[in-house]
Amino acid sequence: MKSCKVRLALRCKFILRSARRTLHLYFMKNIIITGATGFIGRALVQNLRNSTNGRVIAMGSDTVDLVNRAALFDWFEKLHWAFECDHIIHLAALYKAGDWPIHHPATQFHVNMSMNVNILEAWARFFPKAKFTSILSYCMYPSHGEPHPETELWGTEPEDYLFSYAMTKKALLIGQRAYREEYGLDCTSVVLPTVYGPGDSFAENSHVMGALIGKFVRAALNDNEVVEVWGDGSQEREFLYVEDAVDGIISAADNSKVDVLNLGTGQAYSIKAITEIIRQASGFSGKIQHNTTKFVGVKKRLLDVSRVRKELGWQAATSIEQGINNTVRWYQTH
């Protein structure tokens, strides 16, 4: 009986995803995606190219430099004569994991503010009929262990070590509101937790999920005796599988009528818990060594996802165990 219920639940999730993709095929025709060569961007481009009969323009840094206002406007001007855009999805951002933000706040501020200001003005000038959807990060929220509702974006400050990057994301929200109010443009935003999955970076300086999967898979392959894990394992994070992130972004771009939505699972997992799932999935049988001298960031972070469920009826379909297993298998074969 239990196995039948599990199969039924999985079948329902498949049907729901298929229905969503059918809707996307109908409503989303011609789409510009910035940050298209990044991890989430690549997955989003692939999904949309498989599910729309329109045109998907994938903008990476090799296409045009978003920081260069003149070059960006020239690119948009040439495009708008031959292309009727109905969606712009803005993922482009400069960010690196670990303690890099501590040492490069000015670089992050300049690059991200320049990109955001330029893309907003290009949207208004060349494709004002398009809906603009920006992708934000839950680092904008203040440092505490309770679920963050969207209302907490205002009247609070982010964790100090991420102030520069987080404030450029808040400024993007302000910019969208300004363009909406002055020019009547259509826009929305989604706030993501840590996204992981096939195609992620598995380098040691990547975000925690990617870094840990990389460490354990390589250690199992090389018969290493020890894997080092930063921190004592008690810090907690929310994780969203990349296919779910892409599905949610498309759903918000298509259907959201509000300014911002948290897009996540609403569940936080300790690093110790995900380490054990990764260890089992990778086949590593050695010792785990915690290094408490390393930088680990805030103690706990997770999103309140009640608004996205109410507004869109959306929720993530992939469990943490299935997502990690899928990602480990992908990395082992690539």
What name goes with the CATH superfamily?
A: NAD(P)-binding Rossmann-like Domain
First-to-last CA distance = 37 Å
Work out the strand percent: 5-15%
Main β-sheet description: 6 strands, parallel
C-alpha Rg, in Å?
Answer: 20 Å
Round the mean pLDDT to the nearest integer and report it.
Answer: 90
Domain count: 1
Highest-level CATH class: Alpha Beta
- Per DSSP E runs of 2 or more residues, the count of β-strands stands at 12
User: What count of helical segments does DSSP give?
Assistant: 11
**CATH topology call:** Rossmann fold
Q: Give the uncertain stretches in residue-range form.
A: 18-26
Strand and helix order: HEHEHEHHEHEEHEEEHEEHEHH
> Which second-level CATH architecture applies?
3-Layer(aba) Sandwich
Shape: globular
By secondary-structure content and strand pairing, the structural class works out as alpha/beta
Order of adjacent strands in the largest pleated sheet: 2-1-3-4-5-10
Helix content: 40-55%
Task: Name some characteristics of this structure.
334 residues; Rossmann fold; six-stranded parallel β-sheet
Topology, element by element:
Layout: H1 2-27, E1 30-34, H2 39-51, E2 55-59, H3 69-80, E3 87-90, H4 100-103, H5 105-126, E4 131-137, H6 163-183, E5 187-192, E6 194-196, H7 208-221, E7 226-230, E8 236-237, E9 239-241, H8 242-255, E10 260-262, E11 269-270, H9 271-282, E12 287-291, H10 306-312, H11 320-332
Parallel strand pairs: 1-2, 1-3, 3-4, 4-5, 5-10, 6-9, 7-12
Antiparallel strand pairs: 8-11
Helix pairs in contact: 1-8, 2-8, 3-5, 5-6, 7-9, 9-11
